[in-house]
Write a structure and sequence with these properties.
Blueprint lengths: L1 E5 L2 E3 L5 E8 L7 E7 L6 E7 L5 E2 L7 E6 L4 E6 L8 E9 L2 E4 L3 E5 L2
Parallel strand pairs: 2-11
Antiparallel strand pairs: 1-3, 3-8, 4-5, 4-9, 5-6, 7-8, 9-10, 9-11
């Protein structure tokens, strides 16, 4: 199973980006999908997650600005990021979790700068 993340880039403060992540290879049968981020010199942190049985969860730092959504049938997860701030600058990683294991995407760089 491979996860391919895309959609990162350079954006000015206040701008928007939409990250996408899709799984390929063997059937994953994911139960949980999420996005993490890691800024330089910082630990990787959970940004948002969604499961088959519960609604999306976002950390306080991104509530009202970011929205996670996903299609479990297609093993695809998205992160809509609005009103971006310089402190959102990080490498963003997608994650899919299933009974068979946990899979990570390769990371996509998001840089918020004027």
């Amino acid at each position: 199973v491979q996860l391919q993340a895309s959609g990162g880039g350079l954006v000015q403060p206040g701008g928007s980006l939409r990250l996408s992540c899709a799984a390929s290879g063997s059937s994953v049968g994911s139960n949980v999908m999420g996005w993490y981020r890691q800024a330089p010199g910082e630990r990787r942190e959970l940004v948002a997650s969604i499961t088959r049985t519960s609604g999306p969860v976002h950390i306080d730092a991104v509530k009202g600005r970011f929205t996670i959504s996903g299609d479990f049938a297609k093993n695809t997860v998205y992160l809509q990021m609005n009103s971006l701030r310089p402190e959102d600058t990080a490498v963003y990683y997608c994650l899919l979790g299933s009974a068979g294991g946990t899979y990570w995407g390769q990371g996509t760089q998001v840089t918020v700068s004027s």
